[in-house]
Amino acid sequence: MRIVLSDFMSLDGVVQAPGGPGEDTDGGFQHGGWSMPFFDPEAMGPVLDEVMRGTDALLFGRRTWQTMAAAWPERAGDPFADRMNAIQKYVVSRTLRELGLRRGSSILRHGCFRHVL
């Protein structure tokens, strides 16, 4: 098994997707959307395509999954969005009880990792 981490992280540890200029300002975070000025679709597109071609599943926390689940189905028809919609997704959560009609998504309960650690 091979696990690859692919994310957008600032040097001081802020992880946030390039979803928009005001993304995730919860808790008074003042730098929501920090990655947008640095995201170049022409440079990053081929890199993201390559990463997604080699990806068998995605692992999300609850908040990130809820954001993704709300966004990607609406973008169907774009090759990247179609891959995002088709790939298996695992959601780690103690509070989420169901994933609605999201085909290919499963909840991993917090306790299921006890034996792995």
List the helices and strands and how they pair.
Elements: H1 41-53, E1 57-61, H2 62-71, H3 79-86, E2 88-92, E3 105-108
Parallel strand pairs: 1-2, 2-3
What does this structure look like?
The protein is α/β, with parallel strands linked by helices. It has two domains: 1-39, no CATH class; 56-113, no CATH class. Helices cover 26% and strands 12% of the residues. The chain is built from three helices and three strands. The chain has helices spanning 41-53, 62-71, 79-86; strands at 57-61, 88-92, 105-108. A three-stranded parallel β-sheet has the order 1-2-3. The radius of gyration is 15 Å and the shape is globular. The chain starts with 40 loop residues before the first helix and ends in a 9-residue tail after the last strand.
List descriptors.
globular; about 120 residues; 2 domains; 3 helices; alpha/beta; three-stranded parallel β-sheet; single chain; 3 strands
Order of strands in the sheet with most strands: 1-2-3
Sequence of secondary-structure elements: HEHHEE
Helical content stands at 25-40%
Distance between the termini: 16 Å
Q: Specify Rg, calculated over alpha carbons.
A: 15 Å
Structural class: alpha/beta
Number of domains: 2
Q: Tell me the number of helical segments per DSSP (H or I, 4 or more residues long).
A: 3
The average pLDDT value, as a whole number, equals 77
Unreliable spans: none
Please report which band the strand proportion falls in: under 5%, 5-15%, 15-25%, 25-35%, 35-45% or over 45%.
5-15%
By DSSP, the count of extended strands is 3
Taking the sheet with the most strands, its summary is: 3 strands, parallel
Please tell me what the overall shape is.
globular
